[in-house]
Specification:
Elements: H1 7-33, H2 41-65, H3 67-88, H4 97-116, H5 120-123, H6 126-141, H7 148-165, H8 168-171, H9 184-209, H10 224-240, H11 249-277, H12 292-313
Length: about 325
């Protein structure tokens, strides 16, 4: 399946490109009229974010063009980069080398291969069961007991967050919904647009009307006004885009609300981890956004919940 066979997807991408063109033009005008060509932190950050969005939308569009294989490969690469960021900020020792090798070179590719061949019975338990049991064994065999519990726990959580949760995005293409055959890629488009849109709208509402900090110790930039305005706006967007999904408008609104809330709390959890490590961002891969995990923190928590809502309520 490709975008050529999905007029809804083409319509969606046309709308997104239109928004990006408008955002780019706005950034250019602000730099010209307000900053007058001089460095301006807020405007420069806005332009960097818009430029990064251009790249991300193009990459996602190319993956969609190759169908399920393209999406699986893309998110497999995303998981690899996210896992690399997580592990680089975690405490590891020489005794973790075999466990790390298993994480990067067995469990990560195996998870995406299983998603690609649609073996739900195994990819749903590979990491939470078999990796959970196997990784501590490899670590224990190294006989390095220094901070053993901390090291094994962080590695298991890294695998859950960076591989297991993210793999539920391409896993949406394995769902078989009566009357919605061939529309699986639209489920991914809806999820990405709603969850990432919630992040953007929370940022915009926070800048326009934000005053009360919602979690100052975790994320100083998040405000009550930004949270309420962003989640409410993204929920409305999800309802308006019901035509991309098998949901009725009211169902789309409820599911959008759930995934936006999960995305928000996911952002808080990942921010707490960054604060614990004493860093602002997970990395510098994406200009204006930080690392891969900084961009995907909301999707990580939203994707598994979204997947199972659809699987248990829409798939026979």
């Amino acid at each position: 399946m490709t975008p050529r066979t999905h007029p809804e997807l083409l319509t969606l991408f046309a709308g997104v490109f239109g928004v990006l063109v408008l955002a780019s033009a706005t950034g250019w005008l602000l730099r010209l009229k307000v900053a007058r060509g001089q460095p301006h932190a807020t405007i420069d950050n806005l332009i960097a974010r818009v430029n990064a969005w251009w790249v991300m939308v193009v990459v996602l569009g190319l993956a969609f063009a190759f169908g399920k294989a393209g999406v699986v490969v893309l998110f497999g690469f995303v998981s690899f980069m996210a896992l690399r960021e997580f592990v680089s900020l975690s405490y590891t020792r020489r005794g973790d080398h075999w466990a790390l090798a298993m994480v990067f070179f067995f469990f990560l590719p195996a998870q995406y291969i299983l998603v690609g061949i649609e073996w739900y019975g195994l990819y749903s338990i590979l990491i939470p069961v078999y990796a959970f049991l196997t990784l501590p064994i490899f670590a224990a065999l190294s006989a390095d007991l220094t901070r053993f519990f901390e090291r094994t726990s962080k590695l298991q959580f890294a695998l859950m967050v960076c591989v297991y949760c993210i793999s539920h995005v391409p896993a949406l293409m394995t769902l078989r919904i009566p009357g919605f055959e061939g529309g699986d890629i639209l489920l991914i488009a809806w999820l990405v647009l709603v969850v990432q849109g919630s992040d953007v709208l929370q940022y915009v509402w926070g800048k326009l009307a934000g005053s009360r900090k919602i979690a100052p110790d975790l994320s100083p930039s998040k405000t009550v006004e930004g949270f309420v305005g962003g989640v409410a706006s993204a929920t409305a967007v999800g309802a308006l885009l019901y035509w991309l999904t098998p949901f009725a408008p009211w169902q789309a609104a409820l599911i959008a609300l759930v995934v936006c809330l999960m995305g928000f709390f996911g952002g808080l959890v990942m921010s707490a981890m960054k604060r614990d490590r004493g860093v602002k961002d997970w990395g510098t891969l994406i200009e204006g956004h930080g690392g891969m995990l900084d961009r995907l923190d909301s999707v990580i928590f939203a994707a598994p919940v979204y997947f199972h809502i659809i699987r248990y309520w829409w798939e026979p």
